Amino acid sequence: MAKWEQLSFQNRYSPLIEQFIFLHDHIIAILTLIIFLVTYVISKFFLTSFKMSTQKENHELEVLWTFLPGVVLILIAFPSLRLLYLSEERSNNPLSIKAIGHQWYWSYEYGDFKNLEFDSFIQPSNYAENSFRLLDTDNRTVLPSKTPTQVFVSSTDVLHAWSVPALGVKADATPGRLNIISLLSLKPGLFFGQCSEICGTNHSFIPINLDVRPLKIFKSWVVNSLNNLFESLYSFEFLLRRGGLPLKWNFS
Ligand SMILES: [Cu+2]
Question: Is the pTM of this model over 0.70?
Answer without folding.
Answer: yes
